[in-house]
């Protein structure tokens, strides 16, 4: 199986991320205005609960599956054995999670009153187990994933504008998203026949069981300061507060999407380099990851913090002012989680330091639960944002400790400081844009052009970012051959 270049996979994964988040950018301003903050909060509360059960059903498979497929993809027999074993494991955990969800539908009053939405969520849980996205990511088949997602997202986007007309259509809105997952699952199952065949004779769980248990516990504890936040907020506050927090998280998710695409591409490649003993290349890719993160995160955080009220108004409309402060609190997570993804997903996981990754999750999860209990009943959506940020910082510190211990890699503090210092003049550009009387969306567009244009100049001419220089050279060679 021919290995595609990281750049090509990054492009496909970037397009995939655009498909996953551009369409919500198109639909969310419409939906948030039509459904209102209360129904947005209700949908996110229910979906948060469903996602929590999905985490239990996957039980670390999203990470272990990618890693296992990446290391066995060169041998068809071994690949089939790996796929069959992991798929059967997923069916077992999904059956247990589904049964527990059904019990909660009838036993928990806060959930039982929205049983109709929970039934739709149950379909999402079952369809998610058939997605086997870990197979395609391990095979690095990002082209197929991208094309499939674009088509399904486009159809879902059209359906939202056609069928969601008023506040009472909140259930239809949730159903449209779940139908999209079902379509993805069907496509994936059909296309998987080109790569593997499910064989119950080839099921061998023991080689994967230890990693699955460790990563499953890791993902569950990680959810205690991410997914759990939304669900817990829904239990101790009202749907409006959930709507504020969900809006802040949605905006943050849209902003960090591109770098997450880069990380998704890097995991199978880093795993392959470690298994092949190519440690020097492994270290080089880690440095490239830091270069990509700093170049994107620093100007983006600056822009988002300065224009938080405008961003919330443009994306969500009136009635969402309560999301401004939570958004400002969570936006720096772009840098924090970006570094976490490098340390955990690109370094510790490929090195199979699963127990060390689990330790970080235990610290973050324990801190998250404690802070949720202390802060959220008093501070509500703002408290949830503080819990998330604090827990992520704790996880980052644990991960950095282990990375320094095992491979001697220090965090590039000096490089990050230079990035921030050289971006300070951009704050003057943003302040100047605020003084110009014009429509908010025009002001935001002009400000973004100025800040990112300035950032590109800084990366190429002053900081001499190796990754940016490499991308610029390829761009000029292809589109500006005379200049190159």
- What is the makeup of the main sheet? none
As a percent range, the share of strand residues is: under 5%
The chain-level mean pLDDT equals 83
Count of discrete structural domains: 2
Order of helices and strands: HHHHHHHHHHHHHHHHHHHH
Helix content: over 70%
Number of E strands: 0
Count helical runs: 20
What is the SS-derived class? mainly alpha
Cα radius of gyration in angstroms = 22 Å
pLDDT under 50 segments (min length 5)? none
Task: Categorize the overall geometry.
Answer: globular
Please give the alpha-carbon distance between the first and last residues: 34 Å
Describe the overall structure:
By secondary structure, the chain is mainly alpha-helical. The protein has two domains: 406 residues, no CATH class; 63 residues, no CATH class. The longest helix has 53 residues. 46% of the residues are buried. The mean pLDDT is 83.
List the helices and strands and how they pair.
Blueprint: H1 6-58, H2 61-72, H3 76-107, H4 109-112, H5 115-129, H6 133-138, H7 142-163, H8 170-192, H9 206-223, H10 227-236, H11 239-275, H12 279-306, H13 308-316, H14 324-330, H15 333-348, H16 354-379, H17 381-407, H18 413-434, H19 440-462, H20 466-479
Helix pairs in contact: 1-3, 1-5, 1-7, 1-8, 1-9, 1-10, 1-11, 2-3, 2-9, 2-11, 3-5, 5-8, 7-8, 9-16, 10-16, 11-12, 11-14, 11-15, 11-17, 12-15, 12-18, 12-19, 14-17, 15-17, 16-17, 18-19
């Amino acid at each position: 199986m021919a290995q595609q270049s990281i750049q090509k996979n990054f492009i496909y994964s970037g397009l995939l991320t655009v498909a996953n988040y551009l369409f919500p950018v198109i639909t969310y301003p419409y939906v948030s205005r039509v459904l209102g903050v209360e129904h947005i909060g209700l949908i996110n509360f229910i979906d948060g609960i469903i996602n929590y059960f999905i985490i239990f059903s996957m039980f670390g498979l999203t990470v272990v599956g990618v890693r296992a497929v990446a290391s066995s993809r060169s041998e068809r027999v071994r690949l089939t054995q790996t796929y069959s074993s992991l798929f059967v494991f997923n069916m077992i955990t999904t059956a247990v999670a589904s049964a527990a969800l059904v019990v909660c539908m009838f036993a928990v009053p806060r959930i039982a009153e929205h049983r109709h939405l929970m039934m739709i969520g149950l379909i999402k849980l079952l369809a998610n187990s058939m997605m086997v996205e870990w197979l395609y990511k391990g095979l690095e088949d990002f082209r197929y994933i991208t094309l499939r997602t674009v088509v399904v997202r486009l159809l879902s986007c059209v359906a939202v504008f056609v069928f969601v007309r008023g506040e009472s259509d909140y259930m239809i809105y949730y159903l449209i998203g779940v139908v999209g997952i079902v379509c993805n699952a069907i496509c994936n199952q059909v296309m998987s026949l080109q790569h593997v065949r499910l064989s119950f004779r080839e099921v061998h769980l023991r080689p994967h069981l230890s990693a699955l248990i460790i990563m499953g516990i890791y993902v569950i504890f990680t959810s205690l300061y991410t997914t759990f936040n939304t669900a817990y907020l829904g239990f101790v506050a009202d749907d409006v507060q959930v709507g504020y927090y969900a809006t802040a998280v949605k905006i943050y998710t849209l902003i960090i999407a591109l770098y997450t695409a880069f990380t998704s591409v890097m995991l199978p490649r880093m795993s392959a380099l470690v298994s092949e003993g190519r440690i020097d290349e492994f270290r080089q890719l880690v440095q490239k990851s830091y270069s990509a993160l700093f170049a994107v995160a620093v100007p983006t955080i600056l822009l988002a913090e300065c224009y938080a009220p405008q961003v919330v108004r443009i994306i969500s409309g009136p009635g969402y002012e309560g999301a401004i402060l939570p958004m400002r609190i969570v936006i720096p997570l772009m840098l924090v989680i970006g570094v976490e993804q490098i340390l955990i997903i690109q370094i510790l996981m490929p090195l199979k330091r699963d127990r060390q990754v689990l330790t970080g999750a235990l610290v973050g999860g324990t801190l998250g639960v404690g802070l949720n209990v202390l802060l959220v009943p008093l501070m509500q959506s703002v408290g949830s944002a503080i819990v998330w940020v604090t827990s992520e910082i704790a996880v980052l510190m644990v991960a950095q400790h282990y990375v320094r211990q095992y491979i001697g890699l220090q965090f590039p503090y000096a490089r990050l400081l230079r990035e921030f210092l050289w971006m300070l003049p951009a704050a003057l550009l943003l302040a100047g844009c605020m003084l110009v009387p014009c429509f908010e969306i025009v002001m935001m567009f002009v400000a973004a052009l100025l800040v990112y244009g300035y950032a590109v100049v800084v990366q190429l001419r002053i900081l001499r970012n190796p990754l940016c220089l490499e991308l610029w050279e390829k761009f000029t060679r292809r589109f500006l051959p005379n200049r190159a």
